[in-house]
Amino acid sequence: MLNILVVEDDESTRKLMCVVLQTRGFKTCWAEDGITALEIIEKQHIDLVVLDLMMPNMDGYELTRQLRVLSEHLPILMVTAKQEPKDKRQGFLAGTDDYMTKPIKDRDFLLVRMTI
User: Fold this and answer.
1) HSE value, Cβ hemisphere, 13 Å, CA-based, for 39
2) Which of 1, 16, 34, 40 is packed most tightly, with the most Cβ within 10 A?
């Protein structure tokens, strides 16, 4: 079973993402900021990171850059409310594999399977 780390500071969004992924057969763990996410990645195997862009302590761009230092091959999906092309471009330059804008529909989350 694939283990997905959901990094999202908004509790209701984080819980919803985890539930949707779990009902699709994925194992999930979560962090509410980038610092906690890095701690989790050091301790357990993660197959995919789904992360928000705007978070306290460390934004999604910086977290993505740090994740790329740790692993070039770890799939990263950025899910954010920022819809401007410049934000999307910055996400890809940071190293994300895919970029989705909120709100996302349950069926759109099936794209996670294609990311892995």
Assistant:
1) 8
2) 34
H-type alpha helices, 1-116: 11-23, 34-43, 60-70, 85-94, 111-115
State residue 102's pLDDT score: 82
Q: What is the pTM for the complete model shown?
A: 0.90
Torsion angle of alpha carbons 36, 38, 44, 50, nearest 10°?
Answer: 90
Q: What is the DSSP string of 50-67?
A: EE-SS-SSS-HHHHHHHH
- Mean pLDDT in residue range 3-13: 95
Mean pLDDT of the chain: 90
Angle, alpha carbons 83-84-87 (nearest 5°): 95
Terminal-to-terminal C-alpha distance of the chain: 12
**What residue ranges define each of the domains in the chain, with the CATH number in brackets?**
3-115 (3.40.50.2300)
Tens digits of residue pLDDT in 83-116: 899 999 999 999 999 998 887 766 666 555 555 5
